[in-house]
Amino acid sequence: MTLKSNPFANYIKERFKHVRVQYKILGLVAGVVLLLSSMIVWQMGDILTNNLRDQLDKREVSIGSDVAARATNELLINNAYSVYELLQNTLKNNEDVLYIFIVDPQGNVLAHTFGEAFPKELLKANAVGGTDKYHLTVFRTEVGVVRDVAVPILDGKLGVARIGMDENGLQKAVLLMTWNLLLIALFVSALGIIAAVLLTRVLTRPIRELVSLTQRVTQGELDVQGIVHSQDEIGVLTEAFNHMTTSLSLNHREHENLMVELREKEEMRLQLLEKVMTAQEEERKRISRELHDGTSQALTSLMVGLKVLESEASFCEVGDRLQEMRQTVAQTLEEVHHLARELRPSILDDMGLVPALERYIREYETKFGAEIDFHVIGFQQHRVSPAIEVALYRIVQEALTNVAKYAQASMVSILLDWREGWVSAIIEDNGQGFDFNQKLTQPGRGLGLFGMQERAALLGGTFKIESQKQIGTTVFIKIPDKGNLFSGITPSEV
C-alpha cells in the first residue's frame, strides 16, 4: 500500500525550489525579525494589560471602600437623599465607573445611579462573604467587560456597596501602547530587511555570475572561466566550475568523434526497427482477425442463445433458472456495494463520525432486530480528527459485531462523549458476557478485542472492557483529541 502525497504540499515544495537564494535569505531574516517583534509586542501587551487590570482593581476597591465608609453614618440615620448624592458625586468624579448602588442585608436596593430602571440581574451577579473585606467579579455585558466589586458596609450589618467599572480606558491604553510597540517593531524590521537585502546582494553576486557562465556553457561556449573573488565556499565552487568547463571542452572534442560513429550505427538501428515494427503490425492484424472471426462471434452466439432460452415458452424451467441467475447476480452486486460501504463509508469522510454511526446503527437494528440506545454529548459544534473518527467507527463496529455474534443481547447502549480535549465511548449490552482473560488466551479468539485495543493505543488512548457472565459486557474507550478545541465565555471571579 502506498501513501498518497498531499498535492498542495507538493505544489508549495516545487514553488520553493524555484525561489532565488537572495529571496530565501531575505525571507528568513524578515520572518525571524517579524516573529521576534510580534512576540515582544504580544508579551509587552500582556504584561501591560495585567498591570493595568491590577491597578484598576485596586482603584475600584478603594472607591468601594470609600463609598461604604462615607455611607455608614447616613444609613444609620436613614438619610437616603445624602446616600443618593454620595453615589452621584462618586459617579461624576470617576469617568470609568459605570454604576454604584447600595443594597441592605435583605437584598433591597437602597440607592443606585441607574435612573428609573434598575437591572435586577445585577443583584445576583456578585456577593460578599461574611468575613471578606470585599469580593470582585468580572462578567461581560452588552457594553463590554465589567469589573464589579462588593464591599460590606459596617461588616455587612448595614448592607453592601456595589461598584461597577468598565475596561474601556484600560483597553485604550493597551491599544495605544501596542500601536507604539508595533511602530517600533516595524522600524526595527525595516532596518533588518534593509541589512538583509545588502547582505544577500553581496553573497549572491558570485552566484549570479556563475549562473550567467552556466547559461553560456549551455549555449555551447565550453571555454568560459569564472573569476575567483574569495577563498570561501563560493570561491571553491568557482574553481570547481573552471575545472569542469576545461574538462567539458576536452570531452566535447571526443564527443564529436563519437557522434560520427553513432550516426552510422543509428541509421542501421532505424532500418532494423522498421523491419521489427512491420512484423509486429502484421502479427496484430492476424490476431485481430482471429478475435473478430472466432471469439467475438462465439460470444454473440452465446448471448443470442441465452435470450432464446429465456423467451422460449417450451423451456419454462430454463427461463426460471436464468431469472434466478439474474437475481443472484443482482443480489451479489448489492452485497458487494454493501461490503464497499462497510469497508469505507463515504459518509464518514463527508459528514463525520456521528452521522456515520447513526446510519450504521439503523442498518444494524434492521438486520439483527436489536434495540440500540445511542446518545451523543459535546459533538454539536465539534468534529474530531479523521484518524479518531475512523478508529472510533471501527471500534464501535467491532463491538456491535461481537454483540450480534456472541452476546445474544436484547438491548445495547452507546454513549459518545467529547469534553475537555478527550473523546470517550461506552458500549454496553445486557448479553451473556464472558471471561475476558480466558478468551484472550484461547487460540484464534480475541483478535477483534485486540484490534480494538490496538486502534485506541495507536492514538494514545485507553481501552478497557468489563464483562460478567449472564449480566453483560461494557467497553470503555478514551482517546485524547489535541486539536480543534473550543471554549465558551463564562463569568470569572478574581
Describe the protein's architecture and organization.
- 61% of the residues lie in helices and 16% in strands.
- It has 494 residues and is an alpha+beta fold.
- The chain has 3 domains: 14-220, 2-Layer Sandwich (Beta-Lactamase), CATH 3.30.450.20; 222-288, no CATH class; 344-480, Histidine kinase-like ATPase, C-terminal domain (Heat Shock Protein 90), CATH 3.30.565.10.
- Strands 2-1-5-4-3-11 form a 6-stranded antiparallel beta sheet.
- Strand 3 and strand 4 form a beta hairpin.
- Helix 4 (168-218) crosses helix 5 and helix 5 runs antiparallel to helix 6 (316-343).
- The model is unreliable at 484-494 (pLDDT under 50).
Name given to the CATH architecture of the largest domain: 2-Layer Sandwich
Coarse morphology: flat
Mean pLDDT figure: 77
Main β-sheet, in a few words? 6 strands, antiparallel
Roughly what percent helix? 55-70%
The percent range for strand residues is: 15-25%
CATH class of the largest domain, please? Alpha Beta
Number of domains: 3
> By CATH's scheme, which homologous superfamily of the largest domain applies?
PAS domain
* Low-pLDDT regions: 484-494
Order of helices and strands: HHHEEEEEHHHHHEHEEHHEEE
Number of strands: 11
